[in-house]
Amino acid sequence: MDKFRKPLFIAAGFFALILGAIGVVLPLLPTTPFVILAALFFSKGSHKIHHWLLKQKIFGSMIQSWEADRVIPIRAKLLSTTMMLTMVSYPLLFRPFALWLKVLVVFIVFYALWYVWQHRSEPVDTSIEQSWKKLSGKTTTPDTHQRQASIKQKNSYSADTQSLFG
């Protein structure tokens, strides 16, 4: 059974990768989900091809972020949003198409945008840490402040104890 499944996963991976590459210039096919899907298929079909895809300059870090934390980097989100809206806006506004087709295109684009933007841009721990840094303007987290305060308190107790008994 494995003999048949692996080639199917590899073929599906290349098909998804081709759709992702087409999605770079065709706004109805978002690149990011297809590249992520290709990585999933390659991970089940060929570890060698999956590793090759992870080492690619353009998609490698995005796939690693997705596999590790289910994260789509903000840069990929902004790029995909810009490309989709730019490539779709001209034909929708200036070309004569049936209304139902325009509505369908708008629905597909908004669904793709929703899919991309519903995922986090950074891992949860990193997001919390960086948000705290931005809000407080400091380089330590609340937990660090609490630890530092308790250490100072313990040190002051031990200094007081030493002065009383020392």
From TrEMBL:
- Keyword 4Fe-4S included in the entry's annotation: no
User: GO cellular component terms?
Assistant: plasma membrane
Q: Which UniProt keywords apply?
A: Membrane, Transmembrane, Transmembrane helix
Q: Which Pfam families match?
A: DUF454
Provide ranges: composition bias, Polar residues. 137-166
Segment forming the signal sequence: none
Q: Where does the chain cross the membrane?
A: 99-117
Annotated stretches, region: Disordered: 136-166
Name of the featured protein = Inner membrane protein
Q: What organism does the UniProt record list as the source?
A: Oceanospirillum linum
